[in-house]
Write a structure and sequence with these properties.
Chain lengths: ~120, ~230
C-alpha cells in the first residue's frame, strides 16, 4: 500500500499542476507548476517527506528512460532537421558548452568570493 | 515480420535492454561516449529503421514512459527540498549562475544564428533550446517558431549536455557541486539533470532548481531577444 499511496499523492500534485497550467495563461507546463506545488506542500508540511520520498526516488532514478521516446522521435522529425543539419548541430554543441561553462563558473566565482564553496566540502 | 511491425512491447523492450547494456558498458569502459541514453536511442532508431517499424507503432508502447515524465519532474521537488538549507545559504551564487546561463544561451543563439544566416523563424525556434521541452514548445509557438524543430533541438541539446557534462566541468575546473549542478541544469534541462543526479545529491538538487528558474527566465528573455534579429 505504501507505494500506492505515495504514487497517488504524486499524481494528485501533477493533476493540480495540470489544472494550474489549464487556468493560467502562461506558457508554463503542468510539470513545472507541479514541482513548485510539491516543494510548497513539503515546506508547509501539507505533504510529509515520508509520504512521497520512496516513490519519488524511484521515479527520479528511472527518469532518463522517460526521455528515450522523445529522443527516438528525432527519426520522425529528421526531414525538418536535415535541411540545416550542420548549422543546428554546431549551434547545439557550442551554445550548450558555453552555457554550462559560464553558469558553472559564475556560480563557483560568487561562492568563492563569499568565502563559501570549496571549504564546505 | 508483421508481428514486429505491430508489437507494442518490442520497441520499448529494445530501448530498455539497450539502455541496460549501455549502462553496463559505461561502467566497464568509463567513456562518456558509452552513454546509456545515447546508446539506447541509437540502437532503437537503428532497429526501427531496419525492421521498417513506424515511429507511431513504437510510440504506442513508449508513450507510457513519456507519461511518467510529468510526475517524475514533480518529484524533483523532493531532493530540492532536502537541500533547501544549502540553497538558502548560497542563493545569490545560484541565481547569478542561472541568470548568466540564460543570458549566455540567448546571446550565443543570436550570434550563431547570424553567423549561419538563419531566418527569423529559425532563430526564434532555437532561442528556447536549453530549457525543458514543455516550456520550450510554448515559447517557440508564441514567437512563431517551428515547434517540431524546437523539440528536436531541445533533445539534441539535452543528450549533448548529458554526454559532455563531466568533461566540461573538468575542462573548466568547475569542482564545486553547487556550481556543477547549476551549470548542467541551466545548459541541458532535465536530460542534464539526469546526469547531475548521478554525480551527487547536491548536483541533482541544484540542477532541478535550474530547470525551473532557467525555464521561467527564458520565457521572458526569449520574447525580448526575439526582436534582435
Amino acid at each position: 500500500m505504501k507505494y500506492v499511496k505515495q504514487f497517488a499523492i504524486i499524481l494528485l500534485v501533477s493533476l493540480a499542476g495540470e489544472l494550474m497550467s489549464f487556468l493560467l495563461p502562461l506558457p508554463v507546463p503542468a510539470s513545472i507548476y507541479g514541482l513548485v506545488l510539491m516543494l510548497f506542500s513539503l515546506l508547509t508540511g501539507l505533504i510529509k517527506l515520508d509520504a512521497v520520498h520512496d516513490t519519488a526516488c524511484f521515479l527520479i532514478e528511472i527518469m532518463p528512460l522517460m526521455f528515450i521516446p522523445a529522443a527516438v522521435g528525432l527519426m520522425a522529425s529528421w526531414s525538418v532537421i536535415r535541411a540545416n543539419l550542420l548549422a543546428y548541430l554546431v549551434i547545439a554543441a557550442v551554445t550548450t558548452l558555453a552555457v554550462m561553462a559560464v553558469s558553472g563558473l559564475v556560480t563557483q566565482g560568487v561562492l568563492r568570493r563569499n568565502g563559501k564553496g570549496e571549504d564546505r566540502k | 515480420m508483421t508481428f514486429f511491425e505491430e508489437s507494442v512491447f518490442f520497441g520499448v523492450s529494445v530501448s530498455l535492454v539497450s539502455y541496460g547494456l549501455g549502462a553496463a558498458l559505461q561502467k566497464k569502459s568509463k567513456s562518456a561516449l558509452c552513454n546509456p541514453l545515447l546508446i539506447s536511442v541509437a540502437v532503437t532508431i537503428a532497429v526501427l529503421v531496419t525492421a521498417r517499424i513506424d515511429y507511431e507503432v513504437y510510440y504506442e508502447g513508449a508513450k507510457y514512459l513519456s507519461y511518467l515524465l510529468t510526475p517524475a519532474t514533480v518529484c524533483l521537488a523532493v531532493p530540492l527540498y532536502e537541500k533547501l538549507a544549502l540553497l538558502k545559504e548560497n542563493w545569490k551564487a545560484v541565481f547569478a549562475g542561472i541568470f548568466s546561463g540564460v543570458l549566455t544561451t540567448l546571446c550565443s543563439v543570436l550570434v550563431m544564428s547570424r553567423l549561419f544566416h538563419l531566418s527569423h523563424e529559425e532563430y526564434v525556434t532555437l532561442l528556447p533550446k536549453s530549457i525543458t521541452t514543455a516550456i520550450g514548445m510554448g515559447v517557440s509557438e508564441e514567437l512563431g517558431g517551428y515547434v517540431t524543430l524546437t523539440v528536436a533541438m531541445i533533445i539534441i541539446t539535452g543528450i549533448f549536455g548529458n554526454v559532455t557534462a563531466v568533461a566540461v566541468c573538468r575542462l573548466f575546473r568547475i569542482t564545486d557541486p553547487i556550481a556543477k549542478g547549476v551549470g548542467i541544469g541551466s545548459a541541458a534541462h532535465a536530460l542534464g539533470t539526469a546526469k547531475a543526479i548521478e554525480l551527487g545529491e547536491v548536483e541533482g538538487a541544484m540542477s532541478s532548481l535550474s530547470i525551473v528558474v532557467a525555464g521561467l527566465l527564458t520565457v521572458v528573455g526569449a520574447s525580448v531577444f526575439a526582436n534582435f534579429m
